[in-house]
Amino acid sequence: MNEDNLNTTDDGLTKLTIDPEVLAQELAAELQGDPLDEIDLETLDPDQAKIASDCDSGLKWLQQGHEERLQGLRVFCEHRDARALPLLVPLLTEPCPVERMSAVYALGRNPSPKAINLLLQLLEQDGNAYVRKAAAWSLGNYSNAPVMKPLIKALQNDIAAVRLWAASSLAEVGLTSTSNADSVASQLLISLGIDHEPVVRSNCIWSLGRLFDRVSTDLRDEVGEVLISVAFNDVEPSVRDEARIALDQIDSPWVKSRMKSLLEEGNLM
Fold first, then answer.
1. Among candidates 218, 217, 223, which has minimal Cα distance to 250?
2. Rounded Cα gap, residues 244 and 76, in angstroms
3. CATH 1.25.10.10: does it fit domain 143-269?
4. Which residues contact 8 (CB under 8 A, 6 or more apart)?
5. Whose CA is closest to 175, among 151, 142, 143?
């Protein structure tokens, strides 16, 4: 899953913010970057006593003023605590885009059924691209909710910063059933073929690799063929590399045999 090569201050993102100058000042002064870049998606702090203390402080901050709420939101972007849910959900409607964005990330770390409709509304309607990007990421943690169609729409129509996270979150939706896997994979294949942003294509590949064993047999063959084609035909080296990584991880005798033949023929560098 790749976001390294995306410039989140490109023209598309700047034009879609509510107030670019004010948002830039808010981000610089209050968040020092995108919270998604700071969230550890794999591990939690092993010091349980410190976590408990941080969460207690975070709960108090969420009930205070703007600056304190931002401090509290930072806490729950990192830690899970069910006590925070009633305080986080109302912040999705805050007028400050920094608070909305941070609340969206916190509710990705701390999923709440009560947040789904608001998160979907933000993904589809929020005028701030940072908020929509956060929603695209967070909705991957709500894979059993009706989030597939909105994420597909975002992958089709939004800016690259949102599309790349929609592609990744769709993998979680696809893993819930073969039917969903087929629907998601079909769209990912389309986006892989037409999206002009290498990072979006790379994330489509990452998701297709995760879904390979879940899709129906006929579609599995198509996914394998497309990934093999991308592995030596895509114009972007990083995308070719992502396809090769995905293919290496796929447990399919046919795919492995095809890749071996291509390597022996010198078609893959």
1. 223
2. 36
3. yes
4. 34, 130, 133, 161
5. 143
Nearest CA to 14 among 29, 30, 27? Answer: 27
Alpha carbon 2 to its chain's center: 10
- End-to-end distance of the chain based on CA atoms, in angstroms? 22
Q: Hey, what are 169's tokens?
A: 């979150």
Handedness of CA 5, 11, 17, 21 (dihedral sign): positive
Question: Residue 95's CB: how many other CB atoms inside 10 A?
Answer: 7
Backbone angles phi, psi at 18, to 5 degrees: -60, -50
100 in Cβ contact with 126 (< 8 Å): yes
Are 141 and 172 within 8 A, CB to CB?
yes
CB 91 within 8 A of CB 57: no
Domain boundaries, the chain: 18-128, 143-269
What Å distances lie between residue 97 and 45, 78, 208, CA to CA? 28, 19, 32
Give the containing element (helix H, strand E) for 264.
helix 253-264
- What kind and span of H or E run contains 138? helix 129-138
Q: Which tens digit of pLDDT belongs to each residue from 46-76? A: 578 888 889 999 999 999 999 999 999 999 9
Buried b (16+ CB within 10 A) or exposed e, 169-185: bbbbbbbeeeebbbbbb
* pTM attached to this predicted model: 0.81
List the helix and strand counts (H, then E) for the chain. Answer: 16, 0
Using CA atoms, how far residue 155 sits from 32, 111, 163, 188, 190, in Å, is: 27, 22, 4, 9, 10
Q: What is the pLDDT of residues 79-117, one digit of tens each?
A: 999 999 999 999 999 999 999 999 999 999 999 999 999
Contacts of residue 74, Cβ cutoff 8 Å, sequence gap at least 6:
35, 58, 102
